[in-house]
Amino acid sequence: MRPGYHHLSDTVSELFSPGSPNKILLTVLHTAFALLLTSFGFGLLRFVQNIGRHKSIGIAASLDFILAGILNILTATVFPQDAWGSTPTFPGEMHIILSGVLSALSILYMILFGIWFQRIGIAKFFLMYSIATVIGVVLAAGWFMASYGSPIMGLSERVTILVGFQWTILLAVVVLKND
């Protein structure tokens, strides 16, 4: 819907940059999505507390997930990416920093939940699955960094995001199955 925007070459964050058409609509949708992720994090925290074993790892993973959800809200609302070719701003620079922090938090909660599920004896495969997903995220992020500014930058970013999302979907399935 945005003239001149190309999903293969342009990043998702560009849709939220100042002056972008549909910025308000996309910010509202992204915020709703991030609020749902944050709420899921609180559900994970309840799930961990109800299991009652090895709670410290599960609680740490849940709090990490919640923090990632909150930072996700901030990257689209308070700290949007600067438009390409514009003068860098504090919010735009914070967007880049928070995106890196989000990546690190995501890797951490994937590993922590994998360890937690292994220790409590539920979904023992989830640790290996989490490690494989982290490797996939790191490889996809490397591809994104290598393609930065290229005609496939948007595609590589979307692959990176998709690898993380599929992990979250399986996490939800495992929790639903065992709740």
Order of helices and strands: HHHHH
Uncertain parts: none
Overall strand count: 0
Percent of residues in helical segments? over 70%
**Sheet of most strands:** none
In DSSP terms, counting alpha (H) and pi (I) runs of 4 or more, how many helices? 5
Taking all Cα atoms into account, the compactness measure Rg is 17 Å
Please indicate the count of domains: 1
**Gap between N and C termini, in Å?**
41 Å
Our estimate of the beta-strand percent is under 5%
Q: Give the overall form.
A: elongated
Q: Please identify the structural class as seen in this structure.
A: mainly alpha
Average pLDDT metric? 92
Structure description:
The chain is an all-alpha fold. The protein has one domain. α2 runs antiparallel to α3 and α4 packs antiparallel against α5. It is elongated. The N and C termini lie far apart (41 Å).
Question: In a nutshell, what does this entry contain?
Answer:
With about 180 residues, this protein is an all-alpha fold.
Any chance you could write out the topology, listing elements then pairs?
Blueprint (H helix, E strand, L loop, with lengths): L22 H29 L3 H22 L13 H31 L5 H21 L6 H26 L1
Helix pairs in contact: 1-2, 2-3, 3-4, 4-5
Keywords:
mainly alpha, 72% helix, elongated
